[in-house]
Amino acid sequence: MVDVIPTAAPGSSEMPDILHFSSADIDQVRLVLNRFYYPVAIGVPEGADGFSLAVEVIQLGPLTVGHLTFATPVTFQVAELDAYHVSMPTTGRLHARHAGHEVVGTPSTGVVFGPGKPVWVAHDGNSAELAVKIDRDALERELAALLGHPIEGPIDLPPVIDLTVGPGQSWNRLVRLLRDELEYKQSLIYQPLIAEQLRSSVLSGLLLSVPHRYHDELTGPAAAGPPRAIRRVVDAIHDEPEQPFSVADLAAVAGMSVRSLQEGFRRHVGSAPMAYLQQERLLRAHESLRRADPARVTVAAVAHRWGFAHLGRFASAYRIRFGESPSETLRATG
């Protein structure tokens, strides 16, 4: 069974590409994995009857998140990765060999692979995993934007990530949130504004969640951006708050690193740049609701237009800002 939602061509950053797939045909499975992940050799132990693989996958430009379910034990072998990849079992275990490491992945421990090396993975039967692929150039560009200078790749990510505590646990929840949206055809992930924000959050979140040679620089103190550069960002937000700005985009407007932008906003504006952007979007949403015809416009449509990924959180933030719910504002116009 294959159910493809043709929202965009694979690799496009405009809209997500989504697929729901299940098959007992190894050749079909290989084609799907090649399309969304890598050319892979698939092995099934002798006597292991009942092979099947179910895949739910979303591709947001350079980011691919899939939930893979294995009915029987199966091995995957990739000659050479061209991306960064994290496998996080949700049920059962996986055994992996990569770059001189032999590791075991469980629901509490994710397995991390880097580009340029072969990979061998054995999955338990009746197991499942979240498989996160990030194009090499995208993750390295994200890190360079955060730091404000070029980097020498590949990034030396560790072979495993602890999914039970701290940033690793938080990053795991973020990936799961994205995967959960696959079930809803009316999901906000179909909005380019939301898709871009989620993609950037997953990439920067991984960089902040695991140790690597740039981690101390990434998390250490940063010099504040000068007021004139911060003003350029404030003006850009005021001019086009509906744009799918990521924090890296705003840093590019300022001509500085993400960390300097954040410190500059803290010092000169008294707010984080994305929080400032959210408040501007809340203001625009408020203005839209006040002018809207409640017979023709919904709160959800206004929230989508101004880039809010979660209606419940939008309503909560709106009430804090304006002292009433979005629906109350809309009804008052009728």
From TrEMBL:
<dbReference type="GO" id="GO:0003700">
    <property type="term" value="F:DNA-binding transcription factor activity"/>
</dbReference>
<feature type="domain" description="HTH araC/xylS-type">
    <location>
        <begin position="231"/>
        <end position="332"/>
    </location>
</feature>
<dbReference type="Pfam" id="PF14525">
    <property type="entry name" value="AraC_binding_2"/>
</dbReference>
<protein>
    <submittedName>
        <fullName>Transcriptional regulator</fullName>
    </submittedName>
</protein>
<dbReference type="InterPro" id="IPR035418">
    <property type="entry name" value="AraC-bd_2"/>
</dbReference>
<dbReference type="InterPro" id="IPR050204">
    <property type="entry name" value="AraC_XylS_family_regulators"/>
</dbReference>
<dbReference type="GO" id="GO:0043565">
    <property type="term" value="F:sequence-specific DNA binding"/>
</dbReference>
<keyword id="KW-0238">DNA-binding</keyword>
<keyword id="KW-0804">Transcription</keyword>
<keyword id="KW-0805">Transcription regulation</keyword>
<dbReference type="InterPro" id="IPR009057">
    <property type="entry name" value="Homeodomain-like_sf"/>
</dbReference>
<dbReference type="InterPro" id="IPR018060">
    <property type="entry name" value="HTH_AraC"/>
</dbReference>
<dbReference type="InterPro" id="IPR037923">
    <property type="entry name" value="HTH-like"/>
</dbReference>
<dbReference type="Pfam" id="PF12833">
    <property type="entry name" value="HTH_18"/>
</dbReference>
